[in-house]
Amino acid sequence: MNRAPLKPKKFLGQHFLNDEDIAQEIVQLFLNLNPCNDVLEVGGGMGVLTKHLFPKNDLHLKVMDVDTNAISYLQELFPDIAENIILGDVLKMQPDHFFQDSFAIIGNFPYNISSQILFKVLEHKEKIPYLVGMFQKEVGDRIAAPPGSRTYGILSVFMQAYYDIETLMIVEKESFNPPPQVRSVVLRFTKRNENILSCNETLFFKVVKTAFNQRRKTLRNALKNLINSPNPTLPYLDLRAERLSWQQFQELTILIEKLHHQD
Asked: In whole angstroms, what is the distance from residue 182 CA to residue 171 CA?
């Protein structure tokens, strides 16, 4: 097939990876630890990752893209799996429509929605034990940032609470069409064996979000409406949100819940 290359669409945040060696390395790093037969590729684009994924006979691969032109291009490029190349928005994804069991995700994520994709992963974390994705480096650094870092935030805490996060490689601007203005990074997320937090998950999410929404304040002031106690004797209250690890947020959530039960 001599089809003309796709033209990247700026409004979709498309930057097509065009370095074959890097694409092959990303797929190999993904496959090395992938625990799932079912795999969803997000943002198939021009198929640079797909071509290394679909020949693997043990994979049940589905490819999703929101761009109708990309879908047509991919279906012509990979006719053997055309029925598994799906027009759709990953942010509206309902995993049960695609897979009955757990599945892994791989993708050169559209940079303008990469953080939102991870929040979507968190919604379905019970079914997604493994993910390898391309991010803008500053976004990737923020996700993997340790406590105390200036970039450490809500998404850092949430993702680190459920997944071990590894930086696999840095990818330079010249490896994309069009070149983005920043470098990129490939991250790997591996779900830890513990399936749930040892605290009330809903309250944990609320504590973390409330703390970071007023990150310039100490936790004593940022969380006062949640704690609802005049003289709370809780740890960490004189610190700011970015100082606490997810384990410390978990501990604090347990103690706040105990206070609520005493009222």
From this structure: 10
Which of these, 117, 124, 258, lies nearest to 200 by C-alpha position? 258
Reported for 97-100, long-range contacts at CB under 8 A and 24+ positions apart, including other chains, are 98/38, 98/40, 98/62, 99/38, 99/40, 99/60, 99/62, 99/127
| Secondary structure (3-state) at 172 | coil
C-alpha distance across the termini of the chain, in Å: 70
Residue 38 DSSP SS3:
strand
Sequence-distant (6+) residues with CB within 8 A of 113 are 13, 90, 91
Q: What is the pLDDT of residues 96-110, one digit of tens each?
A: 888 999 999 999 998
| Domain 10-191: assigned CATH number | 3.40.50.150
CB atoms within 10 A of CB 165: 17
Any idea what DSSP says for residue 249?
Answer: H
At the fourth CATH level, the homologous superfamily of domain 201-262 is rRNA adenine dimethylase, C-terminal domain (1.10.8.100)
Residue pointed to by tokens 């069009």: 178
Q: Where are the domains of the chain?
A: 10-191, 201-262
SS3 state of residue 192: coil
Q: Which residue has the higher pLDDT, 122 or 228?
A: 122
Rounded distance, CA 243 to CA 168, Å? 26
The pTM for the full model equals 0.93
H or E segment at 226? Answer: helix 224-227
8 Å CB contact between 61 and 41: yes
238: which DSSP letter?
T
pLDDT at 14 over 90: no
Q: Report the length, in residues, of the chain.
A: 263
Q: What is the pLDDT of residues 57-70, one digit of tens each?
A: 899 999 999 999 99
